[in-house]
Amino acid sequence: MRKYLSKYARLFRLKTMLIYLFPLVLALSAGLDMIQDGTAKAVEHSWVTVLFAYIAFFMGSFFSSSLNCYVDVQADKVHDGLYKADKDISQQPFVTGEMGKIETVLLFTITGVGCVVFSLLVNFRFAAFMIGAVLLLGVLYSHPWFSFKSKPVLDIVTNATGAVLILCAGMAIVSSDLPPIQPVVFGWLFAANMYMPSVANDAPFDEVAGYRTSGVVFGQKRLINAMIPTTVLCAAAGIWAVLSPSLNWQYRLFNGLGIFGAIGFTVLMFALYHPPHIELNTNLIIYPLALLLLFYFVLSIYELAT
């Protein structure tokens, strides 16, 4: 039984999931506060619909990560497993042959249908953003018919846009309003900046698999250099947000912290780049983000209770 569950644990990329969960929790917490302040229009919601939203996210995240593993077998076979956010992906169950055809079909059916059903149980607006994010980050990004992950620039744009769609989904759980423009712009740039080193690190293995990612086409060094203008734009968007008195304090807090996070992250990437790797212990990024996620999660629970 333990061996059976182990392969699903290797498919469910927990640390990557936490990164994409953050914008959902942030927008939910900020949306609840904005409703209380009268700066956002509420929609019918309850503890149950919030729970359904989280289930929909987890289902969609599992679907997307599993599809990514399913189509990435050739690259994962030759991956050295170093400096990934999750684990040694050369041991993911589609590479090791542990996933049978029927089991694979059931996995995608249950997680895909589950995401759609639980999203619709929240509300149609949430469903549009959440399903849209899964289609973008899962199907369009990974499926061989589209394979945005293997196209230069589009691989980074897809991930950044997916993060923004999840931000909008978080707001849609409780409000008919969209998130303010400042955190949307900042979030897009922040997500793009965070994703670039991952693309750079995967370049040698993606090239062997025949992918034309940003890392393969532009080279690792140029992609890391591109973090500089992205960080400058990110910092400018963050300052805009912090200095906007009309913006919810929770968004302003994240944008303010995010300025230092983006700058520090970029400096760290240059310091740790020793070709062919950026020798980063990803826990240095995951743990602070997880603590901030926990803060906003607890805050949202308090706001729901009051």
Overview of the molecule:
The protein has 306 residues and is mostly helical. Helices cover 75% and strands 1% of the residues. The chain has one domain (2-305). The protein has a two-stranded antiparallel ribbon. Helix 3 packs antiparallel against helix 6 (101-122), helix 3 (47-71) runs parallel beside helix 7 (124-142) and helix 7 packs antiparallel against helix 8. The relative contact order is 0.14. The model has no long low-confidence stretch (mean pLDDT 89).
Radius of gyration: 19 Å
Query: How are the strands ordered across the major sheet?
Result: 1-2
Number of domains: 1
Count the DSSP helices: 14
Biggest sheet: strands, sense, closure? Answer: 2 strands, antiparallel
Number of DSSP strands? 2
What share of residues are in beta strands? under 5%
Index terms:
single chain, mainly alpha, globular, two-stranded antiparallel sheet, 306 residues
Write the layout of secondary structure elements.
Layout: H1 2-11, H2 14-37, H3 47-71, H4 73-77, H5 93-96, H6 101-122, H7 124-142, H8 154-172, H9 181-208, H10 214-218, H11 220-225, H12 227-242, H13 249-272, E1 273-274, E2 277-278, H14 283-305
Antiparallel strand pairs: 1-2
Helix pairs in contact: 2-8, 2-14, 3-6, 3-7, 6-7, 7-8, 8-9, 9-12, 9-13, 12-13
Concise synopsis of the structure shown:
With 306 residues, this protein is mostly helical. The protein is built from 14 helices and 2 strands.
